[in-house]
């Protein structure tokens, strides 16, 4: 990441939490909070104005909720990473968020250090889903919930192996350990996987891999 400052926008209808999250983000030398918003009613204009690298998105908000917000961000700002905030890890809304294009999620009870690390992970393209959420995605594909297309995607055996670990919810570090490779080598392989799949996050890669039956 070097000396790059991660730009973060916060969407949360709780004023106290919204202010606390901004203060936490600004306390990190690696990050700056570029905007804080009550809900997603004006999400396109808000994201365009705040120009974040990462959006920290609450799921349950009035008017326009976080899931609808993710869909709008994904269509209009495909390179912006979205980290969902949730109370329960196995919430069906998390699954819906991932399918809508969210890059990952963080529990609201997580520590400040864990939250900042999650933002950094999402920014760097490393936001693994837990096994329970990955299983829900897999089950949905087995039930033909998602569309298929005929785009040709060619992955090497090593890339397919790594993609399989990502589907299981492995982080980049866990993939490196399982494959006996350095984290740098794994990051290089996964970057190539992203390019071939034309995605920007682990969640998108998993969804597309299952959709295309690449593993």
UniProtKB/TrEMBL annotation:
<protein>
    <submittedName>
        <fullName>Response regulator transcription factor</fullName>
    </submittedName>
</protein>
<feature type="domain" description="HTH luxR-type">
    <location>
        <begin position="148"/>
        <end position="213"/>
    </location>
</feature>
<dbReference type="InterPro" id="IPR016032">
    <property type="entry name" value="Sig_transdc_resp-reg_C-effctor"/>
</dbReference>
<feature type="modified residue" description="4-aspartylphosphate">
    <location>
        <position position="58"/>
    </location>
</feature>
<dbReference type="InterPro" id="IPR001789">
    <property type="entry name" value="Sig_transdc_resp-reg_receiver"/>
</dbReference>
<feature type="domain" description="Response regulatory">
    <location>
        <begin position="7"/>
        <end position="123"/>
    </location>
</feature>
<dbReference type="InterPro" id="IPR011006">
    <property type="entry name" value="CheY-like_superfamily"/>
</dbReference>
<dbReference type="Pfam" id="PF00072">
    <property type="entry name" value="Response_reg"/>
</dbReference>
<keyword id="KW-0597">Phosphoprotein</keyword>
<dbReference type="InterPro" id="IPR000792">
    <property type="entry name" value="Tscrpt_reg_LuxR_C"/>
</dbReference>
<dbReference type="Pfam" id="PF00196">
    <property type="entry name" value="GerE"/>
</dbReference>
<dbReference type="InterPro" id="IPR058245">
    <property type="entry name" value="NreC/VraR/RcsB-like_REC"/>
</dbReference>
<keyword id="KW-0238">DNA-binding</keyword>
<dbReference type="InterPro" id="IPR039420">
    <property type="entry name" value="WalR-like"/>
</dbReference>
């Amino acid at each position: 990441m070097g000396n790059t400052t991660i730009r973060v926008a916060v969407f949360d209808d709780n004023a106290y939490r919204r202010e606390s999250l901004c203060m936490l983000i600004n306390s990190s030398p690696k990050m700056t909070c570029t905007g804080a918003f009550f809900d997603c009613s004006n999400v396109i204009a808000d994201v365009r104005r705040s120009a974040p690298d990462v959006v920290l998105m609450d799921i349950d908000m009035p008017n326009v909720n976080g899931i609808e917000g993710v869909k709008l961000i994904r269509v209009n700002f495909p390179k912006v990473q979205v980290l969902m905030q949730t109370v329960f890890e196995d919430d069906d809304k998390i699954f819906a968020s991932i399918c809508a294009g969210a890059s990952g999620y963080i529990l609201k009870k997580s520590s400040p250090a864990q939250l900042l690390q999650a933002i950094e992970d999402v920014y760097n393209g490393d936001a693994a889903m837990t096994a329970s959420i990955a299983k829900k995605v897999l089950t949905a594909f087995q039930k033909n919930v998602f569309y298929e297309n005929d785009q040709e995607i060619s992955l090497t055996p090593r890339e397919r192996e790594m993609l399989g670990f990502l589907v299981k919810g492995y982080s980049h570090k866990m993939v490196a350990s399982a494959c006996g490779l350095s984290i740098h080598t794994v990051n290089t392989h996964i970057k190539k996987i992203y390019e071939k799949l034309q995605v920007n996050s682990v969640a998108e890669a998993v969804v597309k891999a299952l959709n295309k039956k690449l593993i």
